[in-house]
Amino acid sequence: MKMVKTSMTALVSMTLLAGCWDQHNLKDVKLAMATGFDLAPEGNIIQTITIPIFTPGAGGMEVQGSQVVVTEGDTPRDARNIINHKVAEQLDASKLLVLLFGEEYAKQDIYTGLDIFYRDPKSSLLANVAIVHGKANEILSLKPEDRKTTSEYLNDLITSEQDTTVLPKQSRPLISDILDPGSDFVLPLIEPQKKEAKIIGLAMFNEHKYTGQFIPVLNATLYLLMADQLAKRAWIKLKVREGSDVDIRNFLMINVLKSKRDLAINADNIHDISVDLSLHMKIEIMEYHENDLVSEKIQALTQTISDKLTQQANAILQMTQQANSDCLGIGSYIRAYHHATWDKTSWEDAYPDINFKANVTVEISKHGVFN
Amino acid sequence: MSNPEKKITRFQLFIMTLQSQIGIGVISLPYYLFNAAGNDAWISVIVAGIFVQINIVLIWLLYRRFPNQSIFEVLEITVGKYAAYCLKTAYSMYFFTIATLIVLLFVRLVNIWILPRTPMWLVTLIMIAVCVYGVIDHLRVMARFFFLASMMLFVLLFLIVTVAKDINFLAVLPIGNSGIPAILGGAHHAVISFLGYEVLLVILSKSLGGHAGKIKAALLANGIVTLFYTLLTFVSLAYLGPAVMRFVPEPVLYIMKYRTFHIIERTDLLFFSIWIVCVGTSFMTFLYLTANALTSLLPQIRRPTFVYVIASLLFMLSFFFPTDENKVALFNKIATYLSYLFTIVLPGILLFIAMARGKSGDDPV
Q1: Is B113 an 8 Å CB contact of chain A?
Q2: What is the mean pLDDT of residues B92-112?
C-alpha cells in the first residue's frame, strides 16, 4: 500500500515538474547564427539573417550551408517578425554568434539595434559585434570556402584576431561602454571583398554613434596596447629605415611580450587638462634583416623603435581626438580621480581639446635564436 | 509545551541564521541600493550589516534574560496575557507577510527570467509544497537541510568570483561621493535583504551551548552575509558600471549571462537554480516562524497542522499576486517598516519592560 502511495505521489510530481508551458524544442525553431542591420534610404531598416541548414548525415545532423533571409522593417523587432512570416519555423536568436551593423546604420545610433538583445532574457549577449564598411548584407551573403556557414567564418575570424591583439576583447558588456559618459569604445570594422571579409580597422564610436573614422588595422595593435589589452601575442610592423636598396630591409617586425601602461592625468583646471600616457614594453624581434644584433646596435635599435612607436601612438591619440571618441576611457579616470573637474565639464566637448601625449619605451629582451 | 522540540547545535544555529538571511535579496539587492546610494551602494551594505549586528545583540540581550523561552513566551511573561495575545497575532501576521513577500518576489522573478509562460500559481505551488515538507518535522531536521543547502553558497560564491576578474574599479570611484544621507538611505533599502535573522527570536532558546557561543554564531552568520552581499554589490556595480545599473533590475543574473564555461552556456540559469534553494530556506524559516507563532496562540493545535493551513492560504493568495512593479515596491516598503517594528522596536520595548519590572525567565507566566 505504501509502495502504491509513493509511486502515485511521484507520478503526480512528475507531471508538475515537466514545465510543459515553457519548453523550447529545437525542431520548432530556426536558429539565427548571424544577423546584420542596414539602413534603407527611406530610414527604415534592412535586416539580414543567416540560418544554418541542418540535414541528417552520417554522424547525426550536419550543417549544409546557410540560408540567408533579408527583410525590411521599421524596427529590429519588427523586421524579425516579418522574417518569421517568411521562414518555416519561429526564429530564435539565442545562439547568435555575430551581429553586424552597416556603416550608415551605425552612424545613426547603434543602441537601437542592440535593445532587443538586452531586453530578452533568453538572448545571447556574447555575440561579436562588428561594423561593416559598406553594407552588412554584403558580408552575410558571402559564401566562405573553408567554412560551412558565414556565421561560423565571421565568428572565427573575429575571435582569432582577438588573440593576436588586433581586435578588442569585450570582457565587460558593450552596453556599459555605450551608456557610460566617461568612455567610448571601438568595434571591429570589416570590409566585404570578393570571397571573404577583411578586417580593416577599429571603428571609433562617440556615445551611441559611429564617428565614421577608424583606426587602421596597422595601428590597431598599438592602440590596444595603449588601452592595456595585450592578448596572447601582439605583432607590430615598423618601418625603421629609409631608402635601403631592398625595400624589404626597411622593415622590422616585433612581438610585444609584456606591456605596462601608465596614465598621468593632470586635471585640476577644467580648461587645462593634460594626460600623459606612457607605455613600457618588453619586446621580441621577430623579423629584421640586419643580421648582426650586437649590444651597441641593439641599443640604437631600441631607441629607434621607441621613437617610431611614440610617433605612432601620438598619431593614434590625434585620431581619437579628431573623431571625438574617448575610446581609451580617459573620462572615467577623470571622473574617478578628479571628480570636481568632472562635475564641471561636459566631457564630450572637452575631450578633443585636452592635451594628450603618449610616450613609448621598449626593451628588447629576445631576438630569436639568431643574432 | 506538550511536544518539546529537540534542540539544535550551535553550528546549526549558525547555519540557520545564515541560510535564513541569504535568499530573495541576492538577485536584486545591488539594483535597489544603486538607485538609493549610487556608486557607494556597497558601503550601504556594510552599514546595514553593522546595523543588523547591533540588532542581533539586542535580541540576544533579551534572550539572555529569558534563556529558555522563545519570544512568544517572553511576551506572556512581560506584558501579560491579553497584550501578549494581540502581539502574538501581530507577530504571526508579520511573519506571514514576509513569507508572502518572499514567494511573491521569487515567483515574479521566475516568471520574468525563465518560465514566462508557466502560470505563477504553479510555480508557487511547487515552491510551497517542497518547503512545507521541510518544515513539518522538528527543527533539527530543518537545520540539517539548511546545512546541505549552505553548500550551494560555495557555488554561488565561485560564480561571482569568476566575474570579479573582469571588473573595472573605476566604476566605484570616487568613494563616498554620494554622501552620507544617500548611503544611509541605501542601508534602509538593504535591510529587507538581511531579513531572516528574526529566526533568532525563536531559535536562540532552542539551541544548545552557552550564551557567549550563541551570540558568536549569530554575529558570525550575519557577518558572512554582510561580506557576501558587499561582494555581490561591488562586483555587479564594477562590472556593469553605473550607467547600466539603473536599467538592470536583476544585476546579479545579468552579469551571469556574460559568463560562459565550456559546458555551461547559460550560467544565469545555473545561478538561478542554486539561488532557488536559498530562497527556499528563507521561505521555510518564515513558514516555521509563522507556524510557531500560531502554535503559541493556540497550543492545542499541533504545529504541522498550522504549516498546512498557512501554506494553503499562501497558495490561494498567489492567484492575487500583483505583477505591477509599483505595488511590489510598496509591499517591499511596508515589509521593511514592519521589520523595524517587529525586530527592533518590540524586542527593545520588551527588554526595557523586563528590566524595569525585574522579570526574567525564572518567573512564572
Answers
A1: yes
A2: 90
